[in-house]
Amino acid sequence: MPLFHLPARPAPHRRVPDLAYAANERPPVSALWVLALQHAATAMAFIAYVLVTARLAGLSRADTQTMVALTLLAMALTTAMQAWGGRWGAGVLVVNIPSAMMITLAASLLGAYGLGAMAPAALVHGLVSLAMVPLVRRTRPLFPPPVVGTVICMAGVALVAGSIQRALGLTPGQWSVDAASAAVAGVTLAGIVGLSVWGRRLRLMALLLAMAAGVAVAALLGRLEGTQALSDAALLALPELAAPRWHLQGDVLLAVALVAILSQLDTLGSVIMLDKMEDADWRRADMAAIGRGIQANGVGNLLMGLLGALPTSTSSANIALAYATRSTARAIGLAVAALLALAAFLPKLTLALTLVPEPVLGAVGLYAAGYLMVSGMQLTVSRAIDSRVLFAVGLSLSAGLAVMQMPQLAQQAPEGLRFLLGNGFVVAGVLVIALNLLFRLGVAQRARQALHAPAEELHGEITNFVETRGAAWGARRDVVQRAAMAALEAAEAILASPAPAGTDARRLSAIRGQFDEFNLDIELLHSGAPLRLGGGQAQLPDPAALLDGADDSAIDAALAPLSGQLLHYLADRVSTGASAGQSFVRLHFEH
């Protein structure tokens, strides 16, 4: 009997068939802890971000250990809230790790003011995150799939350079490949890919086994360093707390606020990715769940950051692990949180996990980078694309890549903004949001076009209208394609249907469209009496009778009921009627 019951979470429209364990399912105990151990080990490997920050800031060993332990507790708290769901989190398997975007800024703060400087930074970071929660539903136009997909793609691109350097043993100014590092990374990456693709049951442990193999190869090659320090670490210890330091400059706090906003955009993308893994018929972002996910991050970072923890963000590597193991059960997240909390009080274990060789982390980063880039591109092109989206996405990616390749550009910016403008992920994220808002100005969500072309040219006019307006509105590509096919079928049904006695033949006069993110409606206006379309099963005509002396009018009359059936298949709802002296066929599509 389970010890706890997770709050209910809406089930997906259609479960992805190859999922091993979905969000609301509870894996067997053995599988649960194996999966949790993989996630916890992956997340704790990114404690390296804390160590890098502490090294750049020149913190003492005692302060570094304190910051590591408190950050682990922050990771445990936010991960547990996300998995629990209900009022406190998104209700998905999102694991938090130290925020990579905070490394440079946190290092400068810690170097100038000591460990206590994290308190005001965490206060601003947490309050900005919480302020975004009630605005999430209203900010849907800010974050359509192309925007989120661009951010996810850039998050993957941002991982490439550092991962390659770790994997190949490269250092600044030294471009010769270290053979031992490349061997360790190669074994690790080959293990991840091989077990994920062909491992069958072992794919549940793909990342953990591959990392273990990489560590073993590193030990055989004499590249496992720092093991002597394990004997000096205590077995069990409570982390010390740092006294807050509240004297920070306004431009620094503004920079922290901007990082907090972009971090929550990462949360948005992570929740969407988990939802897409769950639902084979995924259509749009669950903004309520995203709001709760942002709330969990804000509360966790606020509480633990005041004590000295580095702010956390969602882990793309753990999302890649969930994808590789095909397991998104929320119970795994709670088990991960328990392991992370336990590790915070075990200095020997914490130190051992931070000794994972750099080439192993590089291989994991490359796997995560590839997954994020492909997932981001898929999300971007899931909507119909017009010139606005093309420029918004293309220019943002170009700007982000330019900053990554030419970091000297940021040195010309004001000092308080240099770290922001020197981060390609930040630049691309801010720019794609701004360009999306700019290009959406003046885009009406209703459109009408008169139809005056001859019957043989109506096909092109109707198709161009639906596809052009659908792209401008940002409708999903598959819905636009169905709408175009349904509009063409409706037009043929109108023109082919016999007119009632004493009335003129029906003629198309205009096509109208309307979109509001949740619904797409296409209307064909025509003269004459409203069309009658059957919604039930049409009775198929006898082919022999039609071919045996039947004229064209008889064939058209016999096939007319099939148009109604086809329209009801293509559209979610079909209706006919008359308004303002014109008849119409209205096609409704759920979006």
What report would you give on this structure?
Helix 2 (48-57) packs antiparallel against helix 3. The strands form two sheets. Strands 3-4-5-7-6 form a five-stranded antiparallel beta sheet, with helices on one face. Strands 1-2 form a two-stranded antiparallel sheet. The mean pLDDT is 81. The relative contact order is 0.14. It is 58% helix and 7% strand. The longest helix is centred in the middle third of the chain and has 29 residues, at 250-278. The radius of gyration is 29 Å and the shape is elongated. The chain has 591 residues and is of the alpha+beta class. It has helices spanning 29-45, 48-57, 61-84, 103-113, 118-132, 145-168, 179-198, 206-220, 250-278, 287-305, 316-325, 330-344, 347-354, 358-380, 387-405, 418-421, 424-440, 458-473, 477-496, 543-547, 552-570; strands at 96-98, 312-314, 446-450, 508-515, 519-526, 573-579, 582-590. The protein contains 21 helices and seven strands.
Helix and strand run: HHHEHHHHHHHEHHHHHHHEHHEEHHEE
Average pLDDT rating: 81
| Overall strand count | 7
Ends: how far apart?
40 Å
Q: What is the helix tally?
A: 21
Instruction: Give the low-confidence spans.
Output: none
What does the overall shape look like?
Answer: elongated
Q: How can the largest sheet be summarized?
A: 5 strands, antiparallel
Category by helix and strand content: alpha+beta
